[in-house]
Records
---
Amino acid sequence: MFEKVKNILQKKSTRTFSHNTVHEYANRLNHLSKHFATDDLNFFCINYERVKQFLKTKNKHTARNLCVSLATVLQAINLDANEYLKLGRELKQKLKPFDNRRSDQVRKNWLEWKQIEAVQEEYENDFEKIRHKLDISSRDVLLYKRYLIVSLMTLRPPLRNDYRILKIVTNEADYEEFKNNKKFNLILISPNLVRLNISCSKVRKYYSPHTFEIPDTGKFTKLFSALQLHRHFIGHQEYLLQTRNNEPYKRDQFSSFLRHLMLQKTGKMVGAKIMRASYYTHVLKKPSKRKAKEMMHSEQIAKQHYIKVDI
């Protein structure tokens, strides 16, 4: 079912979906397919009541996501999706209104932005001690990667997990060739220029491609210089972060990587969501249209999800 849904969304739908959205929808329908032991999409039209009973066993968010995914795929192949669209709307109305108080888990791991910046400074100092080493160890490579990621997440408004899939290119020609690819993001590293292009994102439809540069000035100078050393520390690997199988990190792998680099310095499991919330809460204090765009979300999303109060 997974490949079947991917093919439908990529080739038959009149809508354009990001690579990540296609995978999310395919995974959801694959879950349904396994539960009902069928890969026949018409089954879900004929057996709506049976599917509805199964959805009742899920929480409202999960059930609605399954409805939206199923309706989207059914519509793409001209099957009746009205019942699932209706159910999806009903579930949406039942969802709790947003609550921007910190949950117990968020409160447990919360850091003020100045504390997060201090982590970046620690990693920067650690990297300065090894940047001129000729013989580097696996620990040095890990430190290098941690320094790059924590710097990208703190020296500018933090993104989600979009740095997990940064394909490295070293010239403008390759950058132009790949910049509109939906399967990965780009980092151009040349002697005089570092540019990032975020075109593979869960919000690609609204905010991509998102392009920005890392200048060789001010607070970015050391990061710019460190990126010039990428061949020395990670060789000719295709992605800035990649597995032993030479595959880019998946979301959960990047989340784990980020949380553990923060854990080492703070004792807290701080991921992208808390970093984004801390930035908005302590730095911006209120929604900003310009900063929201830089962080690839709307002002409303910032107000609902990222500005946190502790009451």
---
Amino acid sequence: MQDIDIAEAATLIPITEIARRIGIEEDEIELYGRYKAKISLDLLRRLERSKEGHLVVVTSTNPTKAGEGKTTVTVGLGQALNRLGVSSSICIREPSLGPCMGVKGGAAGGGYSQVVPMEDINLHFTGDLHAVQAAHNLLAAMVDNHLQQGNALGIDPRTITWPRVLDMNDRSLRHIVLGLGGRADGVPRESAFVITVASEVMAILCLATGIEDLKARLGRIVVGSTYGRTPVCASDLHAAGAMAALLKDAIKPNLVQTLEGSPAFIHGGPFANIAHGTNSILATRMALHLSDVVLVESGFGSDLGFEKFMDIVTRTGGFLPEAVIIVSTIRSLKLHGGQNAGELTTENLGALERGLPNLERHVHNVRQFGFHPIVALNHFPTDTDAEVAMLLEAAKRLKVEVVFTDVWARGGAGGEELAKVLLKELDERVRARPLYPLEMPLRTKVETVAQKVYGAEGVDFTPEALRSLKLFEDLGYGELPVCLAKTQTSFSDDPTKLGSPKGFRVTMRQASLSAGAGFVVCLLGDIMTMPGLPKEPAAEKIDLSADGKIRGLF
């Protein structure tokens, strides 16, 4: 059966019952149909002094076309814990329409470890991404309107850095010109579109701790500077209040369920390659107050989402994980070792041996933050005994425990061994820590992440990047963490360098200030903040049948 068939065959539990089971009161939920709900922020005020559960982060090796199954493992492990009688919730991001219509279709797990209703989650859900898009573009419109109406603040149009956003992959919008058509149609200037999930408003939504914090962060957004080089913020344009109003419902976390009826908080959707890559702090906080174990999926590998979770999210959220799981497959490691994608079902010990250093690097990365990682291997019938033996021998050398899972085919039952190993790990004390102190200069923070996490020999900074970093420090933003944007497929900034490359340097070509979100974005290599569609986009296979059912999402 395909994922969509499994999802459609499931009997869902009314979301009011899911909420009741984990202690959410009736007046704290706002229904979006029978199987989706938003959770009032009043819940956090009610439970602020209650005990919090254990926080676990799920990361992975560098993603490949073979797929690692990180979301599937997160969902399946949550189901497994609940099967064992341990109250568990999962926290994952909302899918963007960009990749859904572009490269991979849906993003809600797979097999018998999915979150449902799958079609709703992938297409519009509760409208959060549209609200972010509207709030972001409102500020863009107010900037251009200010220029048109006399420019009382003296904004230098050449310094405006606030783009527009769209939740779709569309390379033709990467560079645009505004204000053409005459005096009544605005002030001509160059600008751009980025994908909605790369918006600073999305990052703010996911890092805000409440409505007042949301409004304060929105007000701190820097859109450009005056002719006198003074930063201009959203608060100077009196935009923060209206932006917050557009986000009134979007700030509330969403509650859905897995195929086995486990609670799933799905809220916010920042990409991990061009943003910080984790669901909202508010969703994680709610889950921690309501569950014994909370599984948070960080985007892509330990070099991206997990590093940013530790260096950005935990500092804002005021929490630290107690365990980390690295998801991988023998198939993906063979791809990192150079095996042809069409031959993954064929035994290739040489490719696996060459690909294992990728796993080794991720284990090393997680240990740098103070953890003893658990490796979860999605098992395929085509994995040969010799390949399994080689992987286990490598794990023995790394002194890391490997647990094979089968959550795609068996749901929670296929993750019970992983759940038992995790529970033992949670009995151990760890000293989790960020990678660098905030007082470190911005340039040194970039170099620290590149050298310690990516394994680079160093960083080459363009003159523009160095000027930006110095300017941000001069303006008083030097103690912000850095959010490095780079390709997800490689530890380097070159997507073709798979495995664990050696002897490379990365190039930082540009930096931008996200003062509202509270970090500095640093672009490495040719990373794009507005992706393009592939030659054969996934949208070509998506359709709506005569009986109103969506086809082709998986």
---
Amino acid sequence: MPAGPFVLALLAFTVIFLAAPFPRSLGAAPIRDNHPTAADTLERMAQAAFGPLSLAELRMVRTAPTRDVAWAGPVQDPDAAPNNPASADTWGNDRKIRATLIIWLLSNPDAAKLVHPSGIGVAGARITGELDLSYLSVSLPLTFIACSIPDGIDLSFAHIRSIDLRKSWTGPIALQQTIVNGDISLRYGHYGEVNVFRSTIDGTLDCSSGHFDGSNPLSVVETAIAGDALFHQGFTTGGLIYFRLSRIGQSLSFNDARFTGKGENGLNAERASVGGTLYWVDVKTSPHTKLDLSNAHVGALWDDAASWPAPGNLFLNGFTYGTISGGPADSATRLQWLRLQPRAMWVQPQPYRQLAVVLRDNGRPEGATVVEIAHENALTEYGGGSFGTRLWRYTLRWTIGYGYRPLQALWWILSFVMLGAILFRWGYTARLMTPTEESAYETFVKTGRPPLHYPPFNSFIYSLENFLPVVELHQGNYWRPNPRHSPAGRPRVPFGGETLPARMLRLYLWVHILAGWTITPLLFAGLAGLLRSS
């Protein structure tokens, strides 16, 4: 056979052989992926349980096994206008997520084990129905950014990792007896009434820039917060914030906060305990804003006078604080602060004593004394009591400063002694001061001078001796105002008559002696600290 036809036949056979399919016993089947991803499995499970999923639900389910956030909106920007929850009513069905689907993802054992440890993350979605996670133990964080949850969230008696509701608009949020092993973020959004009762928050409660609605917008009662409770950057509410009986490990901070509306609003932290600092700075108040710190305790106080509530709206009885870290620290301004309490509270001793202790500990002993005296003044003016009681208190006030300034009595002693010296000297010159012995008296009437053996008159010594009790300087027993004498150069008064100048001088001597018997013992009692009420 010629070589040419043979080569052609060989080539034809080779082509036919290579083109024929191999039997299965001669080769492996094509490689195919028969192992679906966690997202595929979760999607199939969700569709089996809930039927067809919306686009937002599908994104959430498929994103759940990852660390990503499922964006339901057209853009991935929480500040973009299309993601503003205020317009959630205009969002289409493709942005809706059923609350029951979220609950299923967190509570169904088969589904929950496919969710990433970073938890559920959704942004720009409208959650329909109440997100009821009450009594569940959820070990995963919850993140809902710029979402609309109009029917609210119920976490009562739940055990959760953390919850982030930044920029979201929600209905009421229930957190009664909830354990949160992390933070609660209610920032930048609008929130319905939030009820936190007897709960435990291991992290921080951050409400900065949040708007809280309702007559009881945020009630945190008997709750333990390990971190801070923050109300910063334009936090706004028209109601009363409650922190009664709560314990905060770090700070309770209102900085750039706004209290608005015609109804009662402000902060009630009665019997609360704050381990760090209570900040009340740059707070805008209304005439109805109240700040109730009755029986509360804070490690330090930092405030400013412009943020104080209106008169009658501050309650400080039982309030204790370790120091004043910022804001007014002088006694005069702080006394104005105390006067913002209702008038019936002005006489309560504890607010004054606490302020005095802090001022003294901070190196302001004079300021502390001013505060203590201010409390006594308040008792005198507003504490009631009989006329005699008030007269006695006024005596203590003007003589020895209620015992806090006993040396103040020296000015009264000096004034009385000098005044007496002037008046008694005038009386001697006018011959209204006469010797008490008969022979000396006769000589004095005739000559205007006592006998040489008689103790001469010294007006200063006479005034000092009669003012100071139990002091004998040999003047008082030898000279007396004589009411039957006229001033020198005038006719003598008949027997039984009295001249007005002499009578007035005698009356002053009695007042002089009584003042000495009152002021001098008060001086020594004040020096001994016997008259202080605290």
